[in-house]
Amino acid sequence: MIKTNQKGKEQGIRRNETKNMILCAMFVTLIAAGAFIKIPIPVVPFTLQYLFTMLAGLLLGGKLGCLSVCVYIFLGLAGLPVFAQGGGIGYIFQPSFGYIIGFAAGAYVTGILANGKGNPGYPRLLAANFIGLGIVYLFGMVYYYWISNFYLGTPIGLWPLFLYCFLLAVPGDIVLCILGAVLGKRMIPIIRAERM
Fold it and tell me: What pTM does this model have?
């Protein structure tokens, strides 16, 4: 009887790990697809990547959400053209690469904050999304400033940085935060039930 129970537990753990791997792979694919759904604006293109990295955190939790984004980053740096402007190790010298790093940190924090409670409501989900968005922009703007001023030799001042890398891009991302909260509220119970 004990062996049967042990076997059942092991199978349950393996099944759960398989589901997690499938969900992570699905989000890697969605994030890559989101890079090509873009609205051209100056300096930093607006894409749907943030929506999918945010949802990875909301639906998979902080660790698995971050893992999904890290796998996406690894694939892009390995040479697959999954970033908004291609791929390859040289992409780290793109001024916008900081936003991609921010996606991983943002997904982790969003997932931790949103899933800290059994069944999160809209206020909690929105707060998690906006904090995650703030982290993405912090990483993105600091990296953009640093790489432009100290590596590429194309200096950018603080006001143009704030204008092009925040003000012009953030309205669309605010809409994505609201959409993410709505989708998260509906999908979190479904994903949790599937992972049981």
Answer: 0.88
